[in-house]
Amino acid sequence: MTIEAICRTSVELDSEGRGVKKSAIMENPDAHAYYREHSDSYRAAQARKQQMIRKGKSTPRPAQPLRIDPKRDRERVRSRYLQMTKADLVERLLSVEQAYADVHQQLVQLQFQLIELEEKEQRQALRQSKRKGGTTQNNDRAEEP
């Protein structure tokens, strides 16, 4: 039973219709302790919180996929970031930095591969031009007396 349900029911049961207010239960140490001890919803909520805390400490959160649209609404993104916790923002920043580093490394590798391919094509073109030039020279010599 939730504290809100207790408050609603107490209003219905109270002959004066005043009932018990949430703040009265929360501020009264005995009433609050009794509520925590006997409320299934309170215990379930506490168990979920503890599970989230343990989950956050034991394993890092999986990184969100980085699907970033260049034409995105920056104000909406800003608003979403402002709603995130500091820990979530740090995880997001780390994942973005790692993705940036990975993409940069891929770019460097592709640039080296491109240079290697261009050099290979130049060598092949040079060999072909030498063959053509060499064949022409041999044919010229064969035709001479």
The overall pLDDT average reads: 82
Q: Would you tell me the structural class of the helices and strands?
A: mainly alpha
Q: Count of helices?
A: 6
Spans of at least 5 consecutive residues whose pLDDT stays below 50 are none
The radius of gyration over CA amounts to 37 Å
Largest sheet: none
Structural shape: rod-shaped
Total beta strand runs: 0
Query: How many domains comprise the coordinates?
Result: 2
Strand content: under 5%
End-to-end Cα distance, whole Å, is: 114 Å
How would you describe this protein?
- With about 140 residues, the chain is an all-alpha fold.
- Helix content is about 80%, strand content about 0%.
- The termini are far apart.
Give a quick set of tags describing it.
145 residues; mainly alpha; 2 domains; 79% helix
Quick structural overview:
This protein is mainly alpha-helical and 145 residues long. The protein is built from 6 helices and no strands.
Secondary structure layout plus pairing:
Elements (H helix, E strand, L loop, with lengths): L2 H11 L8 H6 L1 H10 L1 H19 L15 H10 L2 H58 L2
